[in-house]
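Reviewer 2 asked us to include a model.

Predict the structure of this chain.
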Amino acid sequence: MGTNRLQFHGGGRGRCLTGDCGGIQQCTSHGQSPSTLAEYSLNQENNLDSFDVSLVEGFNVPMEFSPTSIGCTRGIKCTADMNSQCPNELRVPGGCHNPCTVFNTDQYCCNSGNCGPTNYSRYFKDRCSDAYSYPQDEQTSNFTCGGGTNYKVVFCP
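Predicted model (structure tokens):
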């Protein structure tokens, strides 16, 4: 399985193989793809938390996102060996790119707001069935728990 090698000097400048944040260790924005994302909104509509694991930006490390509070037990685990099996056209050192970044077409980027699964999104979905695999994949990939739930996010479980 691929690893996300870090190389930073004492001043916090350096680079990550995947998910780099402009050469700084303390990210102030979203890292460069490919990157496995944990997304969440806490205490939203109807006092619910919403959470997901997204592969829309590609995949770099396996991830688990799980509630730890009593009363909510549905978590997400994406532990497939995605990098070694990545389609050649999406493969990059340390990760598996998303097709939007590689091909930059509406079919893969969903710029029109109306898109469906593709062969590439199916590659991700087949290996991590609970994760978002394309921008409009919320029906099988968005999970909720009651507000106030505690969670753990584990990289490389």
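The helical segments are 82-85, 99-103, 106-109, 119-127. The mean pLDDT is 87. We have added this to the supplementary material.
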